[in-house]
Amino acid sequence: MRHLGNTLKHGALAMTLIASAVHAMAADGAAGAAKGDPDARARATVAAMTLDEKIQTVFGYFSTDFKGTAKPKEGVPFTAGFIPGVERLGIPHQQLTDAGTGVASQPNPSPRQRTALPAGIATAASWNPALSYAGGAMIGKEARLSGHNVMLAGGINLLREPRNGRNFEYAGEDPLLSGVIGGEQIRGIQSNHVVATVKHFAYNDQETGRFKVNVKIGDAAGRMSDLLAFQIAIERGNPGSVMCAYNLVNGAYACENDYLLNKVLKRDWGYKGYVMSDWGAVHSTIPAALSGLDQQSGWPFDQSPYFNGALKEAVENGHVPQARLDDMVQRILRALYANGAMEHPVRVEPEKIDFAASALVSQQVAEEGIVLLKNRDGLLPLSDTHRTIAIIGGHADVGVLSGGGSSQVYPIGGSPVPNEGPKVFPGPIVYLPSSPMQALAKRLKAKIVYHDGKDAAAAARLAASSDLALVFATQWTAESIDQPDLSLPNGQDAVIAAVAAANKRTVVVLETGSPVTMPWLDDVGAVVQAWYPGSRGGEAIARVLAGEVDASGRLPATFPRSVDQLPRPALDGAGLPEGTRFATDYDIEGAAVGYKWFDKKGHKPLFAFGHGLSYTSFKYTGLAAAAKDGAIDVSFSVTNTGKRAGKAVPQVYVSKTGAGWEAPKRLGGWDKLALQAGESRTSRVAIDPRTLAVFDSASGKWKIAAGEYTVILAEAADAPVTTVKVRLPAREFAAGGR
Ligand code: BGC
C-alpha cells in the first residue's frame, strides 16, 4: 500500500494542500505523544483507585435528557456520552462524541454546527488511505476543539446487505478495503489525542431488528470477512476502544459474547484497549463483565445500570473477580494515556476551528469519492457547448443530502431544506448548504434552470427544451431503518425515465447511502454516484461534472441488478413485531460477501465492485509478482494514455483454485496514482497475506496452501487487465498475525 508521502510526492495541487494539513496535524500528534509506557502508567493509577472510583470509570451516561433522566450536570451537553473523571488522580472526564463524518449533535435544543465529511462509503470509494487519514485528522481536531476526547468513529461493518440503512457510515463490502480505510481514519482521529472507537463489533450489518437479530456465522467465515475488517483496522489504527454491537452473534449478545470479546479480540488479536457497549446493548452485569465488556455506555439507554451498583455488588461478593474490574479500568486508562488524553486536556474552543481548512479536506475527500458509473460518448465532463441546462430534483438548487441517525452532523448555517422526514430520531432529514447548481453556475456559461422534480411531466418538458438535463436523485438512509428494496424512493425512477425520454443528454447524479437499481440506465447518457458528499458536496460534484478534477472514485460495493441476486432476497426480520427475536443466517454466503458472492454464483451485477470510469485512460504493463516473506509482492507500470491528468486505481486480486476459498478471487491490494497526461509510473503492491490464506478454526491459525496463485491486475472486479502466476510455499501463522 502506498503511504501518504509517496502518494503526495506525485500528486497535484489538491494533494499538496492535503499534505500540509496532514503534516501539521501529524507533527502536532508526534510532539505531544504521551510520555512513558501507558500500561505501566495505567497500572499505577488503577492501584491507587478506590472501588467507587473504578465503578465510576466503567459506567457511562448519555449526555442528553432521555427517558425522564436528566443529562449529567458536567460535560459537553447534548452529545453522545460522558464518564466523570477522577480529579485527585488526574483522570480526565471522558467526553464522547459521534461519529465518522464529524462532530455529531443531538438535534435539540440547538444543534452544534460542524464540518461534515462525505459519508464513510464515499471515503471508501476514494480508495485513498491518505485521504481517509486526512478526514479523520480533520474531524478529530473538530472533536477536540468541541471539548471531546473520545470519538465514536471508525464504522466498518461490512456491506453484506445493500438495504442496510447504515451502509453510508461504513466502508463497503471488502474486508481489506474497509479495514485499511477504517484504520487510517482512526489514526487520523487519534493524531489529535482523541481516542477513536471502531464499531460495531460485530456483524451489525442490518438495522431491521438490530436489538434482537441473532446472526449465525461460522468462525472461519467470520474471520475471513467481517472480523478481518476489524482486525486490519485495529492493527493499522490502534483504536483506544471497540464498540460492541446491539445484535446477538451465534446466540449471545455481542456485548456479552465471550467468543467475540475475550477469545477473538483480546486473546487472539492481543487487543489492549477497552470494549464499550453500544447505547442500549447491555443486558446483564455478571455475564457481560465476564465475557469481556469493559464499559457500559449511555445510561439510561439500557434497562438497568448494570455496571453501576450491581457491578460493585458483584465484585464485592466475588461473582466478578476484582481482577476483572481492574482489567476494565486498566484498559480504559491505558487508552487515555496512550493517546495523550491526560497531557492534552480538552476544552470547548469552537472559535479555534478553522472551518475553511476543514471544508477543504471534506471537499477533497468528496472529489475523490465520486464515482463516474457511465459516460456515453464522453457526455461528461460538461462543456460550454450546452447553452441551456435543466437541473432537476434533489434540492440541488440549495444543497446536498446527508445520512440520518446518531452520526448526523449539523451543518454550519443550518439545513436549507427544513421539515423533511421524521420529526424524531433518526430524523430530521438534513441537507448541507452546498448547492451543486450554484457551483455549476459559477463554472459554466450555460443558462441553468431548476425544477424540483416533483412533477415528472413538467420536468420532462423542461428537459425537452434544454440542451442537457441533470437529474439529482436522492435516497435518504438512516440508522435504525433499512431500505425496503434497492429502488430510489418517491417515484424518482419515473421522473428520470420521463426526463431521459425527453432528452437523450440526461445525466443522473445519485446522492444515496447504498447501492440502488437503475431501471432507466440504458436511456441516460451518464451516471455519477456522489453518495452523501459532505459540507462542500456541491462544489465537489460541480468540479467533477465540469472536469476540473478527474472522476477517480471506484465502487467499494457491488451494485446488484435486483434483490434476487443477494444471498437473502428478503430481509430477515422485516415485518416482525418490534422486540421479536429472530435469526439471520450469514453462513449462506459466509465469507463470500459482495463481489465474492457474485463471482461464486456467476451473477452479473449492474456495476461491479471496483468499477468507476475516469476522464482519461490508463495502460498497464509489466505485471510481475514474486513470493516475498510468505506473501506476494506485485509490481506493474501504469501509463496515462489520455490527454488529461487523471487518477488510476489499479486493483490486484488473487485467486487459487482447489484451496477451499469462499470465492474465486479476493482483493489482495491496490494503489491509487495521480498521473499527468502521458506520464508513467511503477506501482508496487504488497498483498496482504490473509487474503492468500484460509482460517483454520481447528488449529486457530491462518494457513496459506503451497502451490500456484494467480495474480489478477484489474480495473474492477469484473474488469481484469492481465494476470501472472506465482508459486508460494505452505505457511501458517497465528490468528492475530500476518
Ligand atoms: C449507535 C452508535 C452510536 C451511539 C451513540 C447508537 O445508537 O448505534 O453508533 O455511537 O448510538 O450515539
TrEMBL record:
GO terms for biological process: carbohydrate metabolic process. Its EC number is 3.2.1.21. The keyword Mitochondrion does not apply. The keyword Hydrolase applies. Residues 648-717 form the Fibronectin type III-like domain. Residues 1-26 form the signal peptide. Belongs to the glycosyl hydrolase 3 family. This is Beta-glucosidase. It comes from Pseudoduganella umbonata.
